[in-house]
Amino acid sequence: MYLLMPMMMRLILIVIFLACFTSRNWPKCNHSIYDYMRLLPPKSSVERFLEAVKRSHARRDAIARSMQSAPKSNSVKPSSIPVTTEGEGEYLTQIGLGTPKKTLTLILDTGSDLVWTQCLACQACYQQIDPIFNPAKSSTYKPVRCGLNLCQDLYITACPAAGCQYLYEYGDGSSTIGNFATDTVTLGNATSIPSLGFGCGHNQTGSFTGADGIVGFGQGPLSLISQLSNKGVISKRFSYCLVNMNSQNASPLLLGDPAVTSAPPGVAYTPIQANPFYPTYYYLNLTGISVAGTPVKYPDGTFTIDSTSGNGGLIIDSGTTLTYLATDGYNAVIAAVKAHLTYPLVSGSEYGLDLCFDIGNATSLILPTIVFHFTGKVDVVLQIENLYVLVDTTGPIICLAMAGNDGFSIFGNIQQQDHLIVYDVNPTNFQIGFKSITCG
Ligand SMILES: *[C@@H]1O[C@H](CO)[C@@H](O)[C@H](O)[C@H]1NC(C)=O
Ligand SMILES: *[C@@H]1O[C@H](CO)[C@@H](O)[C@H](O)[C@H]1NC(C)=O
Ligand SMILES: *[C@@H]1O[C@H](CO)[C@@H](O)[C@H](O)[C@H]1NC(C)=O
Ligand SMILES: *[C@@H]1O[C@H](CO)[C@@H](O)[C@H](O)[C@H]1NC(C)=O
Ligand SMILES: *[C@@H]1O[C@H](CO)[C@@H](O)[C@H](O)[C@H]1NC(C)=O
Question: Within a domain: residue 8?
Fold first, then answer.
């Protein structure tokens, strides 16, 4: 009897969670206010993917450059997101800004802090999805005075009469210049949050096209999540579940406690590693990689943060498409995958990728899966869809969606798809959880 009871209870719990979680309605299971935003479905095609590969490389280079140029302090560094055409390898979310509320479509970016959008009057603006935000028409818009903390948190500021000015430079030479200001932000259908700091960009130069701007979810004080938690609106927690690139469904994004409290059972948590040199990024301790069930061998320390320079380590980033591995680890993974491939290899240079093969007329594919092991026995199992992408329909040719990097590593968004990823950034927990799940 007492053996049976827990079994039954477990069954009931599972049923409740499944009903909540496997249906499209999952995020709505929790009706609290701020918690639910949507990430728009990614748009995918071979051409779009190849563009995304180029941007992914540019972003990796830009993050590297931001690290090289960064002062060794706690200030927020301009990191680097080439913003381009909507939804090609990036996940977009909508927030309301101003009074009356105007809807903006922004890139979700855990690899930067600033929230910014283009603003009228434009000195130079690119074409974007929604009408450009007009601060003059918002009754709650306020420029930030230079002495205020939010302004001092900016990396580069100038202070003309109009108030705090920002300049954010991206790795490919693109930049946004504008006024740092506050306005009311509305998330989902929720209650509005007054006085959120954001960059109102009047002069965008370079290769921006597409999204209205970026919503930074990094650890720094200017990110959306930090500002909301510093105001006491929510706790410093969020989760997302990125749908497969080929899906037309939205990806759920939960803010605040529900990210943790309404997560299904079985989320496995690994600690976030502090890197005082680059406080924006979320670093995880990658302790091993298995290919087709066998651990890959690479030198100790390949994925470790160097405590004197802050170099190395692995960042989890929603804004980078591919996964980049430090050279020694990457070479070992490539060799292991190759050893399991039965298809002829072809050059990937025209696709910007290294390991590509021609599947010819094969009707079912046999490809090795890869597991990333993190501290705390957290095994993130990458399925075929997380690893191999079609780059050419003639052939057809398929490539491994990873690349090498000199130094640090990035766990990119293709590899995050179809995993619930919970960021529990409250100082007492400071961990990130993973659970394999079909996101939408
Ligand atoms: C916009 O910013 C660029 C530098 O990024 C500058 O060269 C240019 O003069 C600015 N344009 C205007 C109209 O202020
Ligand atoms: C917001 O409200 C509209 C209309 O009431 C509804 O259709 C939509 O599903 C709601 N969105 C969310 C994210 O709750
Ligand atoms: C909804 O979230 C609150 C915390 O914000 C939590 O206490 C409650 O259990 C959640 N409800 C469900 C059904 O997950
Ligand atoms: C990271 O993992 C290695 C094992 O690969 C372990 O020795 C080290 O203590 C871990 N570091 C932290 C900060 O958890
Ligand atoms: C697949 O293509 C090869 C030549 O590329 C051919 O020899 C083989 O018969 C084809 N198989 C099928 C099932 O069509």
Answer: no
